[in-house]
Specification:
By secondary structure, this protein is mainly β. The chain contains no helices and 14 strands.
């Protein structure tokens, strides 16, 4: 998943995987929880001209659940950044889904 910041926003430093991830389909939560993997301490700059991305790994050994929205909370080196972020698009999730840490670039 790639995140870009709109012009006019201040840059900030992110670290680790997004938390509180919830997947929904047509406004209803899917009930699929997500864990995380990877280095949770690497710092990356996020802001206008500094996109970041993170992976969502969905195991293919389970039957997927249709989703069209993910909501999550971004992490700074010192803890959560207040507020919930949203991403939209058609995808599937399943039990055992893992979220990777934010990384530099798109």
């Amino acid at each position: 998943m790639t995140l870009t910041a709109a012009r006019g926003y201040e840059s900030c430093v992110l670290a680790g995987s997004p938390t509180g991830v919830r997947f929904s389909n047509h406004g209803k939560r899917t009930g699929v929880a997500a864990g995380h993997y990877g280095d949770q301490k690497t710092k990356v700059t996020f802001g206008p001209g500094h996109p970041v991305h993170f992976d969502i790994q969905v195991p293919n050994m389970h039957r997927g659940t249709a989703s069209d929205e993910a909501s999550f909370t971004l992490q700074a080196p010192g803890g959560e950044i207040p507020g919930t972020s949203f991403a939209e698009g058609k995808f599937s999730v399943a039990s055992g889904t893992l979220i990777g840490p934010v990384q530099r670039g798109a």
